[in-house]
Amino acid sequence: MPSRPGNGSATKSVTSAALAFLIFRQNAMAAPLSAENPRLAPRVTGAHLPMSQSPDRNAEAHVISAILEGRTDLFHDLIRPYEHTVFSMAMAVLRNPQDAEDVTQEAFLKALRNLHTFRAEARFSTWLVSIALNEARSWLRRHRAIESLDTSDETDRIAPELLCDWREVPSEVLERLEVRNLLRDAVTELPLIYREVFLLREIQELTISESAQALGISPASVKVRLHRARIMLQRRLAPQLRPLAPKRRRFPW
Amino acid sequence: MVIDCKHVWGHISDFLDDALSSEARKLVQKHLEHCEVCSAILDSTRNILILTADERVFELPLGYSERLHARLEEEIRHYSH
């Protein structure tokens, strides 16, 4: 039987928790675009919000306090913004939706049970992602599905696919199943050490040092692996995606 | 100082993260101004990263959210008893 997270009484929590909940909800729905990384901006298309639209940190801290004071039901709302990213990560590590779903559930349960150990210096999302990553890694160990033990960052340089020009492939192409499969396969077929770094930086949008912390490696290794992961994806996907770019109109009239 | 294409490829990742020193960044930018190949590599890498990181790439299984919250609810009920 898991222990109750926190040991505070629930006396003052009703009003403050309700307030925190309202602020939280509002921010989660209308958070501004992250200005930290402008190259991610084109991701905002259609009804899909970028994952950088995480809830306000203060509101999140209030919700966490309320949960620890007894409003455990608010945990549902606390994790809602992260359901998709945590699943994506588990899926990319484990490559199987059923296993990824099991691991995701375990990770969220672990987060609930250990919420009292969360320290506000870290972002909640980073903490959550570390738990999920550990769960996925230990699943791989338990199932003896350890992939290539090649953890060396010293393999030969990987050259990118050479092109003479590139016309932007719009994200509307993701409406097509075969394109989503193409991209998913390219990510899931990266060797594990590159896949993990790619996930943390590109999907979870962790910083270099947060990624290093989550993986237990140096920031320099994160940079090397990330570079390789990106070049590997470019090399594999550029020739496949290139024909999907809109054709230039020679005669616009 | 002038840098060649291979040198630029080694900086693509840091360039995208805006993690190059201002001196190295200037050199890369200068190279990109006249090198179509490197510009296309940089543009395609940026574009591909945006596409692969889109949440539609890893679709949630049908009923995933309901199952997750039902499982959490079971756990939460333990706390309230």
Note down, in words, how this protein is organized.
The complex is a heterodimer of chains A (253) and B (81). Chain A has 10 helices and no strands. Chain A is mainly α and 253 residues long. Chain B has 81 residues and is mainly α. In chain B, 70% of the residues lie in helices and 0% in strands. In chain B, helix 3 (22-34) crosses helix 4 (36-52). In chain B, 31% of the residues are buried. The chains are: A mainly alpha (253), B mainly alpha (81). At the A-B interface, helix 3, helix 4, helix 5, helix 7 and helix 8 of A face helix 2, helix 4 and helix 5 of B.
Rg result of chain B: 23 Å
The helicity of chain B comes to over 70%
Number of helices, where a helix is a run of at least 4 consecutive DSSP H or I residues of chain A: 10
The biggest beta sheet of chain A, please? none
Structural class of chain B: mainly alpha
Topology of chain A as a string of helices (H) and strands (E): HHHHHHHHHH
**What amount of the residues of chain B lies in strands?**
under 5%
Average pLDDT of chain B: 92
By DSSP, the count of extended strands of chain A is 0
Task: Give the averaged pLDDT of chain A, no decimals.
Answer: 79
Counting copies of identical and different chains, the oligomeric state is: heterodimer
Question: Sheet with the most strands of chain B?
Answer: none
**Greatest contact pair?**
A-B, 65 and 46 residues
Q: Helices and strands of chain A: which structural class? A: mainly alpha
Q: What's the β-strand tally of chain B?
A: 0
Distance between the termini of chain B: 71 Å
Low-confidence stretches of chain A: 1-14, 27-52
Q: Which regions of chain B contain 5 or more consecutive residues with pLDDT less than 50?
A: none
- Write down the Rg of chain A: 21 Å
